[in-house]
Amino acid sequence: MTPAWRRSPAWRLGRRMRDAARGVIDLARASANARIEALLGYLALSAALAEGGAGRVGLVLVASATVLAAEGMNTALERAVDRSGLGRDPLARAAKDGAAGAVLLTAAGAAAAAVWVLVPHLAACLAAWRRASDLARGAWLAGLVVLAVAALWPEAPEAPPAQGPR
């Protein structure tokens, strides 16, 4: 019999959060696109933070999170279609292309938001960079290097497609 504490809502929520965190880690490991999108989000967030303004930072955060969520859904759908063993089925191709198109639209919207928020304040961002301490610049550059290496790291191998019933 399952202990009472394992049936509690808090325990179940913790398990779901653990599973979701594992999905985010799998996405970062398996998708080069997600790593590149995270790098671009980091750059945009850094620029928004340097200039200040909660509205700008919030918009960049929401846009970056939306792009990464769309990429996660795209990756999950592609894996499911690949695993189904449908091969070159036109509906499978349409599903994968539709999910990739959704990511493209989301990324384009995020890029437009970043341009709208950040370009008018680019001079102020550069001035803030010049005023920043060496420690702050070093921390920013270290984060940039880590994300760039992670973005360029080779993808994890995909699982082979499932063999259908014979």
What is this structure, in a nutshell?
With 166 residues, the protein is an all-alpha fold. 79% of the residues lie in helices and 0% in strands.
Description:
- By secondary structure, the chain is an all-alpha fold.
- The protein has a single domain, classed as Helix Hairpins, CATH 1.10.287.
- Helix content is 79%, strand content 0%.
- Helix 2 (32-51) packs antiparallel against helix 3 (54-84).
What features would you highlight for this structure?
mainly alpha, globular, 166 residues, 79% helix
Helix-strand layout with pairing:
Elements: H1 9-30, H2 32-51, H3 54-84, H4 90-118, H5 122-131, H6 134-152
Helix pairs in contact: 2-3, 2-4, 2-5, 2-6, 3-4
The termini sit apart by 39 Å
CATH T-level fold name? Helix Hairpins
How many distinct beta strands?
0
CATH architecture: Orthogonal Bundle
Principal-axis shape equals: globular
Proportion of residues in helical segments: over 70%
The number of distinct helices, counting runs of at least 4 residues, comes to 6
Helix/strand order: HHHHHH
The amount of beta strand, in percent, is: under 5%
- Class by helix and strand content? mainly alpha
Level-1 CATH class name: Mainly Alpha
Cα-atom radius of gyration = 20 Å
* Poorly predicted sequence stretches spanning 5 or more consecutive residues: none
Major β-sheet annotation: none
User: How many discrete structural domains?
Assistant: 1
- How would you state the average pLDDT, rounded? 82
